[in-house]
């Protein structure tokens, strides 16, 4: 019995030792952690810097680096803070990537024509709770905005659990009949910025609704969408089409007719688009606008050599009947040439 017990204990010790070695920090990290306690501040500084370069591989160094942020040497403290931030960001990015990988098939199921498949996907998201925030936009578009009551109800319950702050404002925009309340909700979401990405589908829907019912383009919805999701292709198209559109299509809620084109161009510059896209929009606007040509030409000049294809048009405009246009064209030609 004693021999058997000894064997079991030996086996257990071996297993525990193996497990310990499996989770132990890499030798390089262990050595650098020890160097953080070295008497020489130069050694400590170098160790802190090297740990930051290792990023997520140095996650076991977090306690030691945290301690190093209170080091007697100012440089060591600064580098330790920077490295600590780099490691935590890398770990967070890795976790985010894994979560998005898990969410991808669920988001695809949300778009299914089969209500049962949608409901099952919504149930999965609800179970994930706050970690399912990246699926928020899809949950709003294909769940809360669904024509199927059961899907809507399930999506409402799930989204309230996943992101209660954004959910409250989205629900206001979607069902509240008071325009002032909707505007207040949109402003709140705008202030939240990227944290409110899930609200973009319902803001887009409301934006289109206002245009259809009032035949006027609202400006506050555009500002909110750009502040929240400047990388969203749909948002980019809305703004670029307005930059390239006629004077009549511009929002009239930016503070006066003279500011409308300038403000929508300012929103364009806040988008994550390249100069080629900006150039195409501005050139379209130059051909469509009757009152903002000088402003558009000035904006083309800011693109520098990326607007070189506009030079033939600008040379023709040097003889335009409007002085402001002639002056803007001459200045733009010089700027683009440089």
Question: Your description of this structure?
Answer:
The chain is flat. α13 packs antiparallel against α14 (257-270). The longest helix has 37 residues, at 74-110. It is mainly alpha-helical and 338 residues long. Helix content is 73%, strand content 0%. It has helices at 2-23, 27-35, 41-54, 62-68, 74-110, 115-128, 136-144, 149-162, 164-175, 179-192, 200-214, 220-228, 233-243, 257-270, 275-288, 293-302, 311-317, 323-337. Residues 5-23 have low confidence and may be disordered. The chain starts with a helix and ends with a helix. The chain has 18 helices and no strands. Among the domains are: 27-92, Leucine-rich Repeat Variant; 104-162.
Keywords:
338 residues; mainly alpha; Leucine-rich Repeat Variant; flat
Write the layout of secondary structure elements.
Elements (H helix, E strand, L loop, with lengths): L1 H22 L3 H9 L5 H14 L7 H7 L5 H37 L4 H14 L7 H9 L4 H14 L1 H12 L3 H14 L7 H15 L5 H9 L4 H11 L13 H14 L4 H14 L4 H10 L8 H7 L5 H15 L1
Order of helices and strands: HHHHHHHHHHHHHHHHHH
Which percent bin holds the helix content?
over 70%
Q: Structural class, from helix and strand content?
A: mainly alpha
CATH first level of the domain at 27-92: Mainly Alpha
Please report the distance between the alpha carbons of the first and last residues. Answer: 92 Å
Largest sheet: none
Integer-rounded radius of gyration: 29 Å
This entry's quaternary arrangement is single chain
How much of the polypeptide forms β-strand, as a percent range? Answer: under 5%
Shape: flat
CATH fold node name of the domain at 27-92 = Leucine-rich Repeat Variant
**Uncertain segments:** 5-23
The number of helical segments is 18
In round numbers, the mean pLDDT is 88
Q: State the CATH architecture of the domain at 27-92.
A: Alpha Horseshoe
Mind telling me the CATH superfamily name of the domain at 27-92?
Leucine-rich Repeat Variant
């Amino acid at each position: 019995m004693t021999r058997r017990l000894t064997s079991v204990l030996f086996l257990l010790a071996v297993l525990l030792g193996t497990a310990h070695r499996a989770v132990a920090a890499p030798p390089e990290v262990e050595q650098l952690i020890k160097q953080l306690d070295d008497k020489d501040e130069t050694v400590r500084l170098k160790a802190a810097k090297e740990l930051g370069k290792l990023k997520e591989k140095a996650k076991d160094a977090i306690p030691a680096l945290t301690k190093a942020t209170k080091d007697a040497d100012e440089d060591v403290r600064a580098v330790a803070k920077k490295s600590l931030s780099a490691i935590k960001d890398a770990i967070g990015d890795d976790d985010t990537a894994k979560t998005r990988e898990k969410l991808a098939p669920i988001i695809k199921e949300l778009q299914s024509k089969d209500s049962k498949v949608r409901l099952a996907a919504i149930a999965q998201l609800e179970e994930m709770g706050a970690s399912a925030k990246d699926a928020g936009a899809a949950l709003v578009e294909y769940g809360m905005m669904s024509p199927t009551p059961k899907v809507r109800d399930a999506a409402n319950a799930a989204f309230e659990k996943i992101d209660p702050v954004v959910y409250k404002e989205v629900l206001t925009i979607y069902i509240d009949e008071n325009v002032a309340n909707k505007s207040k909700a949109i402003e709140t979401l705008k202030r939240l910025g990227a944290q409110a990405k899930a609200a973009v589908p319902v803001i887009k829907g409301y934006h289109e609704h206002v245009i259809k019912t009032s035949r006027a383009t609202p400006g506050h919805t555009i500002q909110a969408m750009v502040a929240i999701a400047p990388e969203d292709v749909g948002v980019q198209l809305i703004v670029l089409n307005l930059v390239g559109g006629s004077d009549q299509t511009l929002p009239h809620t930016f503070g006066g007719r003279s500011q409308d084109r300038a403000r929508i161009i300012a929103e364009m510059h806040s988008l994550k688009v390249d100069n080629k896209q900006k150039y195409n929009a501005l050139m379209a606007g130059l051909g469509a606008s009757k009152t903002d040509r000088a402003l558009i030409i000035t904006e083309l000049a800011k693109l520098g050599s990326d607007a070189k294809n506009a030079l033939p048009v600008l040379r023709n405009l040097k003889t335009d009947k409007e002085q402001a246009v002639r002056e803007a064209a001459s200045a733009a030609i010089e700027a683009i040439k440089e």
